[in-house]
Amino acid sequence: MRRISGYVLLLAGAGVLLFAAIQYVQHQTSMKEALAEANAIISAPDQTQSGSGPNEAPEGTQFGPLMDRTEFRPELGEAIGVLYVPQLDVELPIVEGTDDEMLERGVGHYTSTALPSDNEQILLSGHRDTVFRDFDQLSVGDRFVVKLPYGVFEYEIQSTDIVDKDDTTVIRPMGTEVLVVSTCYPFRYLGNAPERFIFYAYPVDFPLHS
Asked: Where is the active site (predicted)?
């Protein structure tokens, strides 16, 4: 009986590991697809350049914003841009919305909050064990770069906070441009984490057009 129980436990453990591996592969695939979509919408050549057709990008072509902020109206679930973290040298897709299906594809943008250049709170959220892996290495002074079709915006972390997972006061008007990045905490916690780690980052010099 003990031998049978041991086999059952072994099979159960293997099943859990296999399920976790499948989920990880699916997430990585979804994130790569979203990153490709995001890079496509932010890196097309500036069509105002003389002599450049829609599919041409000759050497020396300057890239710039593809639209005005007023023209940018993202749809729920679509990839809208890229979050670059210089300290970790990682690019992450930003997806409009924070439902589970959006967070599986990348960093979620809370639709009720602002976007860069709106002079209000911009709230991004992501899983600590997927897109925000290694975010425990970030500290005050490090930077986030948000790349969107209408510009590139850089923010420096000025403070951090830890709040309860049910604390909704993080989402609020702040009266100034603030990039707020939220993830589960503790970073290495197994299971559903009880808290949220919050980064507050302020504009460095925006917009920056590449």
From this structure: 127 (proton donor/acceptor), 184 (acyl-thioester intermediate)
